[in-house]
Design goal:
The protein is an all-alpha fold. It is 79% helix and 0% strand. The protein has helices at residues 2-9, 16-20, 26-35, 38-76, 81-95, 99-110, 115-142, 145-163, 169-184, 187-197, 203-229, 233-254, 279-284, 286-302, 308-315, 320-344, 350-366, 374-402, 408-437, 439-461, 468-484. Helix 6 crosses helix 15 (308-315), helix 8 (145-163) runs antiparallel to helix 9 and helix 14 packs across helix 19 (408-437).
Length: 485
């Protein structure tokens, strides 16, 4: 009888036949009379509970889906059709951006060159990119956005294909420099066209969507490139060239010139340019130039993810496919967490964010000294990507805060140049250190330099309490206006 009560209490009605066996027992008559209808009642209550729980969950998911749909519509609605053609061309271009990610691995594994030489080639690529950004911006304002973009994309496609065919070390270095020049030359005209097409109130949203497309493309291309490289590295270069040429076709067919015709009154007027802040004045701004120097140092640390990381994974016997999957994590984490994490930290001070982001990025690379498996390498990428997510908007906010309102273009130009310089210095120093001192020296050095940079950021900007999200929006809008001026 005690066992029967326990079964009834916990709702164990699966053994109903066993229960019916007690109906003939005298002591069970009274109890069974109370319990006989309990199974049906319990089952009915359980069904009602499950149905109500299911309806509640259904309503929750429907509300979430409705809110997500409204958010998506608000994000993408109201933008010009030509912007979406530019967005599509950017996505296609980044989906085929195989060469830059795998260049170091290609030179060391496929061609048999040393890590120092691979770092030198990557550095020359970055040096060419610095010149390409300046040249592309000048040409976009002089000969037009569309013409500059078309020329840059066609030349990029041709140069990429040639880079996959040449074998002499001097030729490879020269072609890589030229590739950096022409490929980075397409960025200013794209940004200028977006700024020309989209009204000021929507520019931040449009440029954010374009940045989102870039990261989706980079993450996907990194994953695909590993599988393509397994069939032959030449296919990486040809595939990259094909997608770049496809972008040029889209621009040629769908994009129109957005550069406004010059005002007939201004040319020949002979009026001197208004006096203002010069580049010399920017260089004399010690606080801002300290920020630029710190950004250069941390950018050099971050560049190890595009150069030395591939070499280190190859030295541990991991394949190009495995490196591609690990590299894809960076773009995936940025796409998923950039907006919500930046929003969550928008009330934090700029100095604190830069300090925390720098240390997190540095320690993520420092963990690579202990990595030897795909899973551990993937973990390190997640850690330093979180640092990158925190650092990027905060550093943009700091640059905008320190710039005078009348000279933001020059200040932003100098700030952007720090990233180009890091693209040159990072792979070069990383390759030399790896070749002469070993991999542990690279990763421990990254941790030490990044930690020092984080402390420098905090001491420089500890009094700043600017909202990261708002400052980032201001910076993006200012850059768009500067591009069109």
């Amino acid at each position: 009888m005690r066992e029967l009560k326990a079964r009834a209490t916990r709702g164990d009605w699966e053994s109903s036949r066993w229960l019916q066996g007690f109906t003939s027992h005298p002591k069970a008559q009274t109890f069974y009379g109370r319990v006989a209808t309990a199974p049906a009642q319990v089952l009915q209550d359980k069904l009602l509970f499950d149905r109500g729980h299911l309806e509640a969950r259904k309503g929750h998911w429907m509300r979430a889906a409705t809110q997500a749909g409204l958010a998506v519509r608000e994000t993408v609605s109201g933008l010009p059709r030509q912007f979406w053609w530019l967005w599509t061309s950017t996505l296609v271009n980044r989906l085929g951006g195989f060469v830059v990610t795998f260049l170091a691995l290609y030179l060391t594994v496929q061609r048999g060159y040393s890590p120092s030489y691979a770092g030198l080639v990557a550095a020359l690529f970055g040096l060419g990119g610095a010149g390409g950004a300046v040249l592309g911006g000048v040409l976009a304002d002089r000969v037009g956005r569309r013409r500059t973009l078309l020329a840059a994309q066609v030349l990029t496609a041709l140069t990429t294909a040639v880079l996959g065919l040449v074998t002499h070390p001097v030729t490879i270095a020269a072609v890589a420099t030229l590739l950096g020049l022409v490929s980075n030359g397409s960025r200013p005209p794209v940004q200028a066209m977006v700024a020309d097409l989209v009204p000021a109130k929507d520019r931040v949203r449009a440029l954010s969507l374009n940045y989102w497309a870039v990261n989706i493309g980079l993450g996907t291309s990194a994953a695909l490139a590993g599988f393509i490289a397994a069939e032959g590295y030449l296919w990486l270069f040809l595939g990259d060239a094909f997608t770049t040429l496809l972008c040029a076709i889209v621009v040629f067919a769908k994009a129109k010139e957005t550069l406004a015709a010059p005002d007939p009154v201004l040319p020949g007027a002979g009026k001197p340019a208004p006096a203002g802040v010069t580049l010399v004045d920017v260089l004399r701004d010690r606080r801002f130039m300290t920020l630029v120097l710190l950004t250069l140092l941390l950018g050099s640390v971050a560049q190890q993810g595009n150069s030395t990381l591939a070499i280190d994974m190859g030295a541990h016997g991991l394949s190009a496919r495995q490196f591609g999957l690990v590299a894809a994590i960076n773009g995936l984490v940025i796409v998923v967490l950039q907006i919500p994490l930046t929003r969550a930290l928008r009330t934090r001070g700029t100095g604190a964010l830069l300090g925390a982001g720098s240390c997190l990025l540095a320690w993520g690379f420092g963990l690579t000294a202990f990595a030897g498996s795909v899973g551990f390498y993937a973990l390190t990428v997640v850690v330093w990507t979180l640092g990158e997510i925190i650092h990027a908007p905060a550093s943009m906010s700091a640059a905008a805060d320190l710039a005078p309102a009348t000279a933001r273009g020059r200040y932003q130009g100098m700030y952007t140049l720090s990233y180009s310089a890091a693209t040159f210095a990072g792979p070069l120093v990383g390759g030399l250190t790896y070749d002469r001192l070993g991999s542990d020296a690279v990763w421990i050095g990254c941790a030490a330099v990044g930690t020092a940079v984080g402390a420098g950021y905090y001491l420089l900007l500890r009094r700043s309490r600017t909202s990261v999200a708002g400052a980032e929006s201001l910076r993006t809008a200012d850059d768009a206006v500067t591009t069109t001026s």
